[in-house]
């Protein structure tokens, strides 16, 4: 804990420290509320009234931990989790699965068979997202002081590792205290030829869009600074972060997007449209449990063929 506090809360980073504290507070509040309160109506009321609009998604992500912990006491754990999240709200579906990944990592660490027991009962479109939570947790609490800590992710399958590294990319944005140059230095230190570099970039894009949704010009600026081989993965991450924000709170999305300069507004709306277009195509035929990765890869391929997204 001393290492954690020293790394994240030392130095002159007042904006980051204030926002990160708020994120942590609402995240763990969601976890405790979802575990302790059996009444869905009361839980929904408390979350809606205690969690500010901007931080509601973080509260729901934490709720995924609480729901996962509660589901652990049932024989059909995955199905119990699905019932809980659908009864609260489906708008934060992605966040719940990330939170579940936190809980499963606390419980099972790197035993893939235990994860598989849950995955078989989870929705095929979203099941892999739980590994984003695993990768984020490992990065947030370990990587900044142990650069070899990512080796533990090799216990998982390659598709699972890919989503873990997306979560790690999200954590890298927090480890870097919202400074892109620091995040890029850490990314390059892992190596230009790192097998999961594109997935780490995806996580960085997702984190930038979601954690600084009130400053979307930042994501656009970063995108223009990237090398050509990195742009589609970062842009795909931006698209996912934007889609999660829009799904979670359409009113906040509209008010935020409408305030943007026209070029950035069109760019962000373009990312969303590609995200939906690919999802609609996949929904016509895909029931594969690797759906999430197919979604990621098809968006990247589409973006690579779009000359105007930078």
Keyphrases for this structure?
310 residues; mainly alpha; 2 domains; 16 helices; 74% helix; globular
The SS-based structural class is mainly alpha
Helical coverage, percent range = over 70%
If you compute it from the alpha carbons, what radius of gyration comes out, rounded to the nearest whole angstrom? 18 Å
Roughly how many Å apart are the termini? 40 Å
Order of helices and strands: HHHHHHHHHHHHHHHH
DSSP, total strands: 0
Q: Unreliable stretches, pLDDT < 50, 5 or more residues?
A: none
Count of helical segments?
Answer: 16
Shape: globular
Mean pLDDT: 95
Strand content: under 5%
The biggest beta sheet is recorded as:
none
Give the total of domains. 2
Give an account of the 3D structure:
The termini are far apart. The mean pLDDT is 95. By secondary structure, the chain is mainly alpha-helical. It has two domains: 16-123, no CATH class; 136-310, no CATH class. Helix content is 74%, strand content 0%.
């Amino acid at each position: 804990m001393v290492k954690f506090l020293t790394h994240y809360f030392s130095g002159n980073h007042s904006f980051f420290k204030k926002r990160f504290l708020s994120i942590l507070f609402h995240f763990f509040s969601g976890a405790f509320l979802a575990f302790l309160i059996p009444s869905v109506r009361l839980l929904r009321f408390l979350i809606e009234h205690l969690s500010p609009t901007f931080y509601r998604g973080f509260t729901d992500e934490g709720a995924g931990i609480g729901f996962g912990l509660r589901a652990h006491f049932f024989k059909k754990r995955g199905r119990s989790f699905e019932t809980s999240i659908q009864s609260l709200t489906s708008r934060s579906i992605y966040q719940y699965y990330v939170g579940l990944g936190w809980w499963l990592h606390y419980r099972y660490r790197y035993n893939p068979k235990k994860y598989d027991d849950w995955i078989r009962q989870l929705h095929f479109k979203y099941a892999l997202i739980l590994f984003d939570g695993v990768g984020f947790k490992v990065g947030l609490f370990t990587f900044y002081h142990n650069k070899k800590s990512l080796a533990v992710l090799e216990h998982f399958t390659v598709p699972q590792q890919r989503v873990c590294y997306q979560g790690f990319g999200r954590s890298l944005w927090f480890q870097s205290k919202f400074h892109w140059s620091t995040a890029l230095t850490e990314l390059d230190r892992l190596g230009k030829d790192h097998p999961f570099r594109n997935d780490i970039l995806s996580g960085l894009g997702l984190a930038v869009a979601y954690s600084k949704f009130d400053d979307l010009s930042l994501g656009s600026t970063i995108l223009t600074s990237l090398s050509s081989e990195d742009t589609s993965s970062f842009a795909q991450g931006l698209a996912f972060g934007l889609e999660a924000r829009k799904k979670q709170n359409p009113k906040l999305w509209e008010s935020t997007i409408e305030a943007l300069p026209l070029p950035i507004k069109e760019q962000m709306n373009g990312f969303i449209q590609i995200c939906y277009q690919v999802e609609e195509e996949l929904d016509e035929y895909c029931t594969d449990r690797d759906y999430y990765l197919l979604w990621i890869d098809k968006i990247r391929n589409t973006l690579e063929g779009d000359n105007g997204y930078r």
